[in-house]
Amino acid sequence: MLSLQEAIGLDMDAMTSGFGFTPWEADTCPTLEELMAASSTTSSPSSSGGAAADQGHGLVEDEEERRRRQRRKVSNRLSAQRSRARKQQRLEELRGTVARFRAEKRELAAKLHAVARHELAVRRQNARLRTEEAALKRRLGYLLALQRLTLQLRSRRPQPGAGGGPGGAALPPAAATGLASLMTY
């Protein structure tokens, strides 16, 4: 398709005089470069054959720009693909970390449950031992009291032969009852 400048440079009378659109015969039809050169000489009479070279150079630059854009598209596509791959890898790493943390959480919960059961058993045993300790302290108190009473009675012992029992004085009935009750614990 002709540009606006090329269309202005064409002879309009020659185009409208015949039946067809082209003002040239089929064998004398100029090439694109010739048309570009002709339009550049009519639009700027001071320029010479350098305009055709500029137009050809412009085509080469356009082609290079198109190739650069294409390379950039491919490069961007590959970069985006690598970015998605890195993102996917990071996501998989995070999923693995989450799975490890969940497994560790289950293990720690099981350990905590076992420790809580052990703590409850220790508390029960501790309570039983405290009750047993209190009973033993009471029994020890009774035994110590009985020992003191026995020592007091022996210290008051009458002379041999004066008591009613063998080898000395007989125990009072309260002391004998206390001694018997301590023996049953």
TrEMBL record:
GO MF entries: DNA-binding transcription factor activity; protein heterodimerization activity; transcription cis-regulatory region binding
SUPFAM superfamilies recorded: Leucine zipper domain
One Pfam family linked to the record: bZIP_1
Highest rank taxon of the organism: Eukaryota
Region (Disordered): 37-91
Location of the protein in the cell: Nucleus
SMART domains found in the cross-reference section: BRLZ
GO cellular component: nucleus
Alphabetical GO biological process terms: positive regulation of DNA-templated transcription
Domain BZIP, residue spans: 66-129
Ranges of Low complexity composition bias in the record: 37-53
Record's keyword terms, sorted: DNA-binding, Nucleus, Transcription, Transcription regulation
Major localization class: nucleus
Cross-referenced PANTHER family: BZIP TRANSCRIPTION FACTOR 44, OS03G0770000 PROTEIN
Assigned protein family: Belongs to the bZIP family.
Name listed for the protein in its UniProt record: BZIP domain-containing protein
Organism of this sequence: Hordeum vulgare subsp. vulgare
